[in-house]
Amino acid sequence: MKTILKTMGEQYGRRSWAEPWKIKMVEPIKVMTPQERRKCLEDAGYNTFLLRSEDVYIDLLTDSGTSSMSDRQWAGMMLGDEAYAGSRNFYRLEETIQRIYGYRYFVPTHQGRGAENLISQTLIKQGDVVPGNMYFTTTRLHQELAGGTFRDVVIEEAHDPANEHPFKGNVDLAKLERLIQEVGASRIPYVSLAGTVNMAGGQPVSMANVKALRALCDRYGIRLMLDATRMAENCFFIREREHGYRDKTVAEILKEFCSFTDGAWMSAKKDSLVNIGGWLAVNDGEVFEELRNLVVVYEGLHTYGGMAGRDMEALAIGTEESVQDNHIICRIGQVRYLGELLENWDIPIVKPVGGHAVFLDARKFYPHLSQDRFPAQTLASDIYLDSGVRSMERGIVSAGRDPETGHHRYPRLELVRLTLPRRVYTQSHIDVVAESVRSVWDRRHEAKGLEMTYEPRYLRFFQARFKPLS
Ligand code: PLI
After folding, report:
1. In terms of CB atoms within 10 Å, which of 112, 359, 374, 396 comes out highest?
2. Where along the chain do its domains lie?
């Protein structure tokens, strides 16, 4: 079979593909017995977020803050200027973000949700409606806390795990226009566009879509704001799949994409290869003034925003590395390698395989479990029990409750995410993960589901507890 990886190799004139780095420092990990894993999972209330990291064998919970930094980034850490005000690392970071993303003004924050809080408070007022290409947990919560209501305007294909649309993150422009006409442009502070779309499986937005979206927003005088958390990965897909981009670099595509938007917020813990950090960047001077003022209330002075000087230096270097083509090819290639192994065994995953993770379709694993038996939470628990591999639920638990009715939201996607940290694991780790998923798939008929025994008020998936149903 001609694999996608082979295609990637051919595209770049090589016979095969391998990691563009070698390992200089290692961190031991341990394998536990099935009995030990059962005990740890019980103690964690069947929630993989509540496991201790040292009880995990291969950690695919998230790609957030879990990357390996390069030798250059570590060297940069030694150049931290920890002055309270005016750190030289801030000016380097500011210049780097302006150059690579192309926005005029820059505000640092401690991580993505810090930035989401500031942008939501600045732009949203009570009763506003915020359309977006599928919700993300923290993004939607901050929009709601600022008085807004999120409305999903992603294309229908995004809700179907088997649909192979190349840009499943695209906004459905007709849906968006209907919404504008329904509520009125004055109640829409901005369109919230994420590239790639995390909850849909790391699916990209096309350049054609963002251009058309810009035109539509201009017609109604609405801002277009970008969640740039995984935009470098998004740009790889544009180059691979969209006519006219084959000969451009990821960096060139990124700058072009951002030029169609009015500003962005960023969780630098993903694309940018750092363990902590975030930012906001905008073109509008008045919005910038407000953000720069608010950042001192919630994050820290506007020249550090919750980061240490050394963190800002590592982030500036990581941002440069994040748009290097050989890095992105390896990054997406690893994820795709895992996806292909599972696909070859007919294990149901979200297709096409996205940028940061392979998503298992828990509804297809456990068709006998209704959604309020938490099939994806059950599957994440079963994989941990099988091998010590940690994954994350992305289904009904993550979707939370409707703030108005108090009822569970029932998302169409009931998924488990196997998320690959950047530059951390090798192909053999990925083989082990695939074999574990296969073994759980082979025993899928035995699953009985879970019952929730504790539910926190906000972002319940982080801290909820469960017990097995018998
Ligand atoms: O975890 P933060 O606060 O740095 O960033 C929040 C955030 C914003 N947007 C997107 C698309 C995210 O994926 C995101 C965080 N994601 C996490 C933690 C994840 O595991 O996917």
Report:
1. 359
2. 2-63+325-468, 71-322
Mean pLDDT of 246-271: 98
- Bond into 196 cis (ω within 30): yes
Pairing of strands 223-227, 263-267: parallel
Main-chain dihedrals φ then ψ at residue 322, nearest 5 degrees:
-65, -20
CATH fold for the domain made of 2-63+325-468:
Aspartate Aminotransferase, domain 1 (3.90.1150)
69, amino acid identity: M
Taking the complete model, does pTM exceed 0.70, yes or no?
yes
Ramachandran category for residue 436: left, alpha or beta (phi over 0 → left; psi -120 to 50 → alpha): alpha
Spatial separation of the C-alpha atoms in residues 76 and 62, rounded to whole Å: 25
The one catalytic residue in 227, 262, 361, 382 is 227
Pocket of ligand 1 (CB under 6 A): 62, 64, 111-113, 136, 138-139, 194, 198, 227, 229, 267, 269, 278
Q: What does the pLDDT read at residue 13?
A: 53
Equal fold, 2-63+325-468 vs 71-322: no
Question: Please, which pLDDT band fits residue 12 given cuts at 50, 70 and 90?
Answer: low
Q: Which of 90, 135, 136, 288 is catalytic?
A: 136
What number is the average pLDDT over the span 182-205? 97
Where does residue 79 rank: exposed (0-12), middle (13-18), buried (19+ CB within 10 A)? middle
| CATH class of residue range 71-322 | alpha beta
